[in-house]
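User: Can you fold this complex?
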Amino acid sequence: MITMVTLIDLVLFTLLGITAIAMLRIRDLFAVVMLSGIYSLVSAVIFTDLDAVDVAFTEASVGAGISTILMLGTLALTSTKEKTPRRQSWGALLIVLVTGAALMYGTVDMPAFGDAASPINSPVTDRYITASGEETGVPNIVTSVLASYRGYDTMGETTVIFTAAIAVLILLGSARTTDAPVTPRPATTRSLELRPILRAGAKLLIGPILLFAFYVQFHGDFGPGGGFQAGVIFAAGVILYALIFDMDRARALFRPAVTRPLIALGVLIYAGTGIATLFFGGNFLGYSAFNPHHPAHGQELGIFLVELGVGITVSNVMMTLFFTFCGRRRP
Amino acid sequence: MLPDLPLHLPPLHLAVPLMAAPVGVLWRRPVLAWGWAAVVSAVTLLMAVTTLVTVLGHGPVSYAVGNWPAPWGIELKLDILSALMLVLINGIGLLTVLYGRASVQSEIQASHQYLYYICYLLALAGLSGMVITGDAFNLFVCLEISSLSSYALIAMGKGRKALTAAYNYLVLGTIGATFYIIGVGMLYMVTGTLNMADIALHMQAAPVNRTEVVAIAFLLVGIGLKLALFPLHKWLPNAYAHAPTAVTTFLASTATKVSLYILIRVFFTVLNGAPLLASHLWAEMLVPFAIAGMFSASLVAIFQTNIKKMLAYSSVAQIGYMALGLGFGTVNGLAAGIIHMINHAMIKGALFMAVGCAVLRIGTSASGAVRVESWQGLGRRMPLTMFAFVLAGLSLIGVPLTTGFVSKWYLMMAAFEKGWWLVAVLIVLSSLLAVVYIWRVVEAAYLRPALPGSDTSRCEAPLSMLLPLYLLVAANIWFGIDTRFTVDLAQAAASALFQPVTGLNGGAQ
Amino acid sequence: MSWTSLIDHAIGHYNYWVCVVLMMLGFYIVIASGNLIKKIIGLNLFQTAVIMFYISMGKIDGGTAPILVDPEKVSGPVVYTNPLPSVLMLTAIVVGVATSALGLALVVRIKEAYGSIEEDEILAADRASDAKEQAQYAASAAQAAKTEAAQQGHA
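Assistant: Here's the predicted assembly.
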């Protein structure tokens, strides 16, 4: 049945397709990066439409926010023009067509979109939906599954972010970067500073953004959000300040001596919560053991702790990534 | 209250190195970072051996993370093969850390060495996490931990080619991981679960479905990319050739092996008893790729002037042998594949360690030190290193009384059992190609005069590098003569994998 | 298959088809583009399309976001959209941004080392330095052989 939602989806998907094709064709990398930010935003709208509010939240803050900033930083250090290729790569086209055809063949037997009786709405999901409220005391099912039922995955996810920070420090954190505020500020930063509307807007926004980050961190149990989104939003606030007002002051406040131990601390809080549950007689990450009489209270405590760990690591990793990319001088 | 540690070992195989990595940020002095990595590796090896003993004594172990029973929570599942992999990963890990101190000092700047050891611990955590998990999506997360840390480790190599090698590996590795995720998503769509055993139970019950077929194809291509199965091996030669030698040693002996382990898991746990397996020749499909890889990669290896790259191409060929074992689709074939996986880890570990010793002393540019010409006269200059190289080379070729012979023997037996005479002949023929490329190095080192202007005084590698090297060489000979440990374990692991999956949580419920 | 069932099938699967097309556009950018930054952007596109695919499979018609509401405040049963794909894809987004950051850092270093971020120019630079090294080592190996032959002749 064609519903309003279907129609909205159709329009948004068409937009996505056009954006993607434009990204393929355009050779100005600055434009491509901007389009990729738009692509992420449109995707986030679709995710909201598909009831995946947490994913929408994350895609908007990461895809359209952090990723775009990192790409712009890379463009500033490299070049913004893509060379025109000499010839069409038929081999690549063939591989893509074969892969796409295989996927299309695979869709034939897929359960229909939106079907409540499809296999994934199975006993596994049923328990999450019917029992998670009592078992974990957390109304946002995405949060309870993320931090408790599949908390082990999320520990790995936090480690992946930690790994990325270490890797970027290995690659870009060497002698070329200076932690001291002697780096000449990029010309773009200074020109941003001179724009009154930007300055006024940013002044108004930065406080609420940082406040909102804390709200998302501690309210993620009840509404969309959680440690990851909060960390990204907090970092975005700091990055906004650094871009528009004062890179050096932001860097001095969140200097490596502060951020690096915090990156490590977040991972340790997460895994440490897992170890702590062992001492309370539970399995690894079995938060119920924290409070044998009220398992749900134990769950709430455990989820709070691990989300805190995620938030600390993610916010500091994002800031480290930004400062490392921006602190590097153009060769 | 103190927890009952042996009971909680499964999650700790991942958690211990995972927590050790952030703690490593504290020790920035290279010697402390190295000591920390060594202590952690020793502890994790001890844990792995304990787990192997437990699994051999009491059967498979299942652990419900967070006290959530599967399929709601993530299940960790340790059978003989996964316990064996744990011992292999952590054993090689400890050896490369002990060996790597001098090598890392010479190849990586002092201010970055602690980051190197953090990355190593993360790679160890990721690889261990992959072999203990019973959950298809959790495997992806652990895969990414190990992949990201590997990209960083490879990029630490001297010279700019390490950067492009890491970049290409990153792009192809991410494509592989994304294919894997597409495959898992499609399986989830038709079965409604992510637990491997639970997926198997659902697939056993249902008729063949086109979505499943495509899902398995995507899983195979994705894992094939990470495994560097011919023709998806393009990233491997440069990555191994330009990474720091200690990294090459560690990755060559563990990372591709773990990818093979995932392939085995998909075939034997996820597809356990699925009607899909009976109606499509999935396993046999591997055979042509395996044989093509054995020959083409060995032929390319013969023409390499960079010794590390030559050994890297040889690895692609050896992955062909392992995949061939899997392709036989029999208990003995699988056992032969597992035997070769263990043996090849020891062989390539020893060969790359010997290369590292030579690089340390030749000490010209990164690519110059591994050129076959630079090795001229090395037989007199570094007799112990070269002797170890020759012994490990003999094992690679498959000379009797070495582990390489044991693997090829069991592979050929498996081929005879299937009546595939031609395949058996091809195994022997491709082994002859290994003679050619190993001989080129031996000839240069013993029979060619040293390059003009190079140092010819005798100058062995330090004992800290020679000891781990000779330990691996000794293992190559020991397990070549006394085959009980490797062969018995591999056969037990293989026959356990052929057991039908009947229930969740280790079949206990 | 009748026309109506075909149309039903199309309506039931168009989301997946769009996802496949978007995946392939991203995949094509990754493997066909010679620019290292564009390849990373292509990877992002590819991964976002996979995320879209997962999220599409979780949606239930008439469902709502999986945040439990107080049953006393609503009339009738509430249908929640499947939360599991969301959980998985949150992880995937994080992994994606981690990979991008690492890839971009590599691109910056490659630009510093090669002065280019175009694949073919980098390949050409590598070939040139390989050829130079090859010639240099071949010459010294030949010289070593000549010296040895002379010494043997002398003896």
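Chain C has four helices and no strands. Chain C touches chain A through 82 residues (CB under 8 Å).
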